[in-house]
Amino acid sequence: MHVAALWSREGDRISCELCPNACRIAEGHTGICGVRRNVDGTLYALTYGRISSIAADPIEKKPVFHYHPGTLVLSVGSVGCSMRCGHCQNWRISRSDPESDAVEMHTLDPATVVDMARKYRCPGVAFTYNEPVIWAEYVADVARECRREGLFTIMVTNGYVTTTGLDFFGELIDVWRVDLKGASDETYQRLCHVPTVKPVMDAAERAIHHWGMHVEVVTNVVPTVNDSPEELRAIATWIAEGLAKDTPWHITRFFPYLDYSHLQPTPVETLRMARAIAEEVGLRFVYLGNVDEPNGEDTFCPGCGAAAVRRVGYAIQSRRTRNGSCARCGRTLNIIE
After folding, report:
1. Are 284 and 246 a contacting pair, CB within 8 Å?
2. 191 is in which domain, residue-wise?
3. Which of 72, 140, 173, 303 is the most buried (most CB within 10 A)?
4. Exposed, middle or buried: residue 311 (CB in 10 Å: 0-12, 13-18, 19+)?
5. pLDDT tens digits, 248-292
6. pTM here?
7. What's the CA gap between 10 and 26, in Å, rounded?
8. Residue 102 has what pLDDT?
9. CATH of residue 145
10. How far apart are CA 43 and CA 300, in angstroms?
11. Spatial separation of the C-alpha atoms in residues 23 and 6, rounded to whole Å
């Protein structure tokens, strides 16, 4: 076990200050995430250095399209989550107990993670698969090693973090790839079992405007839950006004799973509608994922209309960019190369 950061004592309980769940944890118990435990009045991070999943992935798989496109990232994850989303694709690890035998775990110190990234020719490390915010101490230590060795870092996150929690590792993270499940509290209550979307939006805005992170947004469109034109327009409007119109928005197709296994996959027409709404709002880089849609994952220059990056699956088929700008007209594409 590793002593956790960001907590205080409140009588015989510990108040965790990392995420907006604001758990008050009794002796011998964990918070909602399942990985931070009160032991004799001290909060411990039970998963520090404990890895459930590790792979060298294309950065496009995260998905991140506008940050070092075409590279590999060493992707690492553990167990636990601050939400309990009814459509979670990684529920076997996100809902796992770190002391259970259900998931095989390995221990890697931060320096070893960086050594593995070098070995497998990954210029960056992504914290992913389960929710990395609840892994904050380990994320920060690995990210420091990455900084020293010239590697970049990516958080693939639900974005449910306090300002204090974000600031704990804010200067160490390069990319904030955040899931936005919807634009309303009702959607978050129904889909994620948390009371409000506000902390997710606040954290993303702070990530881009205060910490200067590169931000990309993903919305998995679930039929009857977050697929109304009103909610999709509210998401697109927040991205345009709260972040920036050049912020990439990945609109992905839902497939039946867990609590929502009774639903049908998202109709392609709904995804096309979402993209049309986003373009009306003024978003310049909108992608359709989990679906074979012509040009759905290609980057087009907003200035001259040229196909700057063409993608097939997770691979780049062609790229016509120069220093993050369109090679034809020079217009910036918000791509960091």
Report:
1. yes
2. 50-295
3. 173
4. buried
5. 999 999 999 999 999 999 999 999 999 999 999 999 999 999 999
6. 0.98
7. 10
8. 85
9. 3.20.20.70
10. 48
11. 12
